[in-house]
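hey
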């Protein structure tokens, strides 16, 4: 995406003052920016990208405001200065890293949004568990542990199987199942280097440990208006996610759950939103289903990650970004077209190595019902599998008369692919100290 020169907030000018303006707050380099800008252009809305970096991230002819996400007070001043010159009609964040600033900005501009505390609960897995338990919702046994303590002693006081999770990372990065004390200790040692990317000292040293919940996993995409949840889609995850790592692969819609279970899912996700205090905007929930009911794994105050939002266009007739924009601006939508089946495969990373190429792309793209195969990684990129990694090789989309046919098409097309990699060599500098005995 071409960069524009940095623009100070008091110098940004939006042409066509009668058009509505939205602020899109996004981390640097987020590939969610372009879909939102394109959705804004389709709706005839002015989009302004708020991001960090040496220059404001912007699409061609789209202005940007450069801010520092680590200094929220100063970022809010810049946004307020901009809003004094150009009325802002909606503001939202695209990713976890931008949600706190978006929440505070919307509150400052007197626009509907979630309270900053509610956004924090949706990002921090340990705080979320506490909120759910306080509101009487079912949660597995859980505790926080400090990796600076003797984890071998901690391992003797844990119920197995369990799952170890960073407090605030997404895409299942750093999430490991342990079935016994030895696996627990090994998981702690493996996760410790991953936590160096945590946002603060607590997130760099603490882990959430919770009892493993057996069952089928699903995802829910929805929009909140005044605290009321409108479910856009329930996605089935047909592959079991039992560990030891939890890299996701297939999402398929419409769900094959019966109507009664779907209602239980809606009710439980609605209750979780209430427990967190979430009231406005998109949510993405992950749940487990078993004979004991619906268990909330997480409810994030954002849309689904990656390019998976394209599934909504296949299943509803609207792109996810357009639905979020329409909701934020108070624009209505026609009845959602829920016909046929659709699915996405988040193409998994086969192993560590330098990416060279993908063979079999033409055959995969020619598979019946496959709409698109998008490889997001470029040659020379170092592939890192889970749990250290969190980036997929790419995405594969299918649209078919039924969900079963969409899933089958994705599996068949995936079999066509051969991921070619080269070994990774990391140089290690060894220092030898010579001692003399004089």
């Amino acid at each position: 995406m071409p960069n524009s020169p940095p623009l100070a907030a008091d110098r940004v000018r939006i042409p066509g003052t009668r058009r509505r303006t939205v602020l899109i707050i996004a981390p640097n380099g987020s590939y969610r920016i372009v879909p939102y800008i394109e959705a804004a252009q389709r709706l005839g809305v002015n989009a302004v990208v708020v991001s960090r970096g040496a220059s404001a991230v912007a699409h061609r002819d789209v202005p940007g405001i450069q801010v520092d996400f680590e200094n929220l007070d100063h970022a809010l001043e810049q946004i307020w200065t901009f809003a004094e010159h150009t009325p802002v009609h909606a503001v939202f964040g695209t990713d976890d890293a931008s949600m706190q600033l978006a929440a505070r900005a919307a509150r400052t501009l007197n626009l509907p949004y979630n309270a900053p505390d509610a956004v924090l609960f949706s990002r921090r897995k340990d705080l979320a568990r506490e909120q759910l338990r306080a509101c009487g919702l079912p949660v597995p046994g859980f505790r926080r542990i400090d990796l600076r303590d003797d984890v071998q002693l901690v391992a003797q006081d844990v119920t197995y199987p369990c799952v170890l999770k960073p407090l605030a990372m997404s895409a299942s990065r750093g999430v490991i199942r342990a079935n016994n004390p030895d696996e627990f200790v090994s998981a702690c040692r493996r996760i410790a280097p991953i936590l160096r990317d945590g946002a603060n000292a607590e997130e760099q040293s603490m882990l959430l440990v919770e009892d493993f919940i057996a069952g089928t996993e699903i995802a829910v995409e929805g929009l909140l208006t005044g605290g009321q949840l409108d479910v856009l889609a329930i996605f089935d995850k047909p592959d079991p996610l039992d560990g030891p790592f939890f890299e996701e692969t297939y999402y398929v819609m419409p769900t094959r759950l019966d109507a009664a279970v779907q209602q239980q899912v809606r009710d439980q996700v609605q209750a979780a939103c209430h427990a967190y205090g979430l009231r406005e905007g998109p949510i993405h929930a992950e749940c487990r289903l078993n004979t004991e009911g619906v268990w909330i794994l997480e409810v994030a105050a954002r849309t689904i990650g990656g390019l998976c939002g394209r599934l909504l266009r296949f299943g509803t007739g609207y792109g996810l970004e357009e639905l979020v924009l329409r909701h934020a601006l108070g624009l209505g939508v026609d009845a959602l077209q829920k016909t046929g089946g659709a699915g996405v495969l988040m193409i998994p990373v086969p192993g560590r190595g330098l990416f060279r190429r993908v063979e079999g792309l033409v055959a995969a793209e020619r598979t019946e019902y496959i709409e698109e195969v998008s490889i997001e990684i470029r040659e020379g990129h170092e592939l890192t599998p889970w749990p250290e990694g969190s980036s997929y090789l790419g995405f594969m989309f299918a649209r078919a008369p039924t969900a079963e046919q969409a899933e089958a098409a994705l599996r068949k097309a995936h079999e066509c692919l051969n991921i070619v990699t080269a070994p990774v060599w990391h140089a290690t500098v060894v220092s030898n100290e010579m001692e003399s005995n004089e």
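The longest strand covers residues 216-225. The mean pLDDT is 88.
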